[in-house]
Amino acid sequence: MAALLGMFEQIVLLAVLSGGDQAYGRAVLRAVESNLGPERSVSAGSVYATLDRLEAQNLVASRLERGTAARRGRARRFYRLTTQGASALTEARSSLDRMWRGVRWPLEASA
Amino acid sequence: MKKIEPPRWMERTLRFLLHPRDREAICGDLYEEFCEEKVRLLGPARAEVWYMRQVLSFVPQKFGFVLTAFCLFTMASGGWLGAMDIILHHPGYAQREWIAGLIVGQAALTLAALHFRSLPWLRPLALVGCAAIVWLAARSLWLAITGANFEGYILLICLGLLMQAALTLLILPGLSPRLPRRA
Lengths: 111, 183
What we know:
Shape of chain B: elongated
Largest sheet of chain B: none
Shape of chain A: elongated
Number of helices of chain A: 4
Number of strands of chain B: 0
Radius of gyration of chain A: 16 Å
Strand content of chain B: under 5%
Structural class of chain B: mainly alpha
Radius of gyration of chain B: 21 Å
Order of helices and strands of chain A: HHHEEH
Structural class of chain A: mainly alpha
Oligomer: heterodimer
Order of helices and strands of chain B: HHHHHHH
Largest sheet of chain A: 2 strands, antiparallel
Strand order of the largest sheet of chain A: 1-2
Number of helices of chain B: 7
């Protein structure tokens, strides 16, 4: 069974997925920031810690590539979703979809 | 025109906080974001504030284990003080039991806030508790320094409490919701 993903982990995995070939650290950070909106502040520390944890769980893999002059030649770490990562994300989505099925929208609090 | 870059001391702090494996890549990412985006959007001063916030967000990963060590030290010290007072019945020992309880309780609360991150309500409690241990440490330090008998172990426990409070204030507010892979 794939790992149970938290909401922030799903957001980071989706940011990696949407980045495609260009999903390096800064791109992932920006994607998370822009998708959570300006009212939610996202720290680089929490995004990189999440990426680190996801990599330890084999849900993402990374590779280093040579940096550009715009970053003083510092290397870039590119991330990609692994097969396990894709399964975990799919399972998370399926679980949520199952939970939402049959729920009337918009939501109403029961008295 | 001269390119506006993050202050060197902030970059050095960031490098110190990062694991060697990630040092180049993360420093480069934040440098790029600062120079290409944040300076243009926020202006140099606010961009520096943004950069500093990002640097501080790596503190919990680096110092979480140090805070754990200080908490365990003060918890053991508080337990030892309490046990000794129960055994020896020093004058005013009942009051000292409260103090020992406060030390042990605050250390336990801080450890819980640090390691059970799915309970975010523990964090404000631990931060409020910091004020209590800072007050206790400052008062005890003053009494130890100005008192007739200088007791080295009191000084040691007070310094432990002050370090615990400083690290708690530094680490807990920026804690990510889940534990990182490595310290």
